[in-house]
Design brief:
Elements (H helix, E strand, L loop, with lengths): L1 E6 L4 E7 L4 E5 L6 H13 L3 E6 L11 H8 L4 E2 L4 H5 L1 H8 L10 E2 L6 E4 L2 E7 L8 E5 L4 E5 L2 E2 L2 E2 L9 H12 L7 E4 L5 E2 H7 L10
Parallel strand pairs: 3-4, 5-6, 10-13
Antiparallel strand pairs: 1-2, 2-3, 7-8, 8-9, 9-10, 11-12, 13-14
């Protein structure tokens, strides 16, 4: 089961993926203050979930603000693609630029690989490498549930920004065409910001990148 909670001034979507055993993985924890951390913890308690994993689609600051809390409270280090290391390590400077308070980030685990099958109880996720918004964005695709946790690659009628360090517009469009639009059209895309959408809808309606064959 997938849950979404929206946090921080960037209105970032934090996802909680729960399996049948009551274990939960948090994807892109964006909690920015004490009240948001309490909301996150309270959600886990309410649903009787045990947090056992922390994963990142990519390492931009709005997707890592809750990592210190996750590490201090649950003892979990974030896992991500090694191509995100430069972005991850730049976050203290980025936080200073925005005038934000960033608690010390935990040492990450850079072990995600392209097309890796990630097992989480009965849930199987395929890791799709989709760079362009950031150097090594990962999308989590669950074929059995028909869903994609896509980070900031594709939004409803929009795409991720590409003007940040490591971003590239042409690369992002290529990633969407090859990694997202090739999925079944009924696939629900859960983005890093804004409402969910579907592959079918974006193939026809996205003004930035339409499928070459949208029929």
């Amino acid at each position: 089961m997938l849950h979404r909670i929206t946090f921080n001034p960037f209105q970032e979507n934090t996802y909680i993926l729960a399996n049948e055993a009551g274990q939960a993985a948090v994807i892109d924890p964006g909690m920015n203050d004490t009240s948001e951390c309490e909301e996150f913890d309270g959600f886990l308690r309410k649903h009787n979930l045990t947090l056992t994993a922390c994963w990142l689609t990519h390492a931009h600051i709005d997707h890592v603000l809750g990592l210190a809390h996750i590490f201090e409270t649950y003892g979990l280090k974030p896992r991500m693609h090694p191509g995100e290391q430069v972005v991850y390590e730049s976050n203290p400077k980025v936080a200073a630029m925005y005038g934000m308070l960033l608690r010390q980030l935990p040492e990450p685990i850079y072990d995600f690989k392209e097309d890796e099958e990630l097992k989480f109880g009965e849930i199987s996720l395929k890791l799709l490498l989709a760079p362009g918004h950031s150097p090594a964005s990962i999308c989590f695709y669950c074929e059995s549930e028909g869903l994609l946790i896509g980070g900031d690659v594709l939004f409803r009628e929009s795409i991720g920004r590409t003007d940040l360090p490591g971003g590239d517009h042409a690369t992002l469009l290529k990633s969407i065409q090859e990694q997202v639009y090739t999925l079944p059209k009924s696939t629900v895309v859960w983005p890093g910001h804004g409402p969910e959408t579907t592959v079918a809808y974006e193939r026809v309606n996205n003004p930035f990148v339409r499928a070459s064959n949208s029929v």
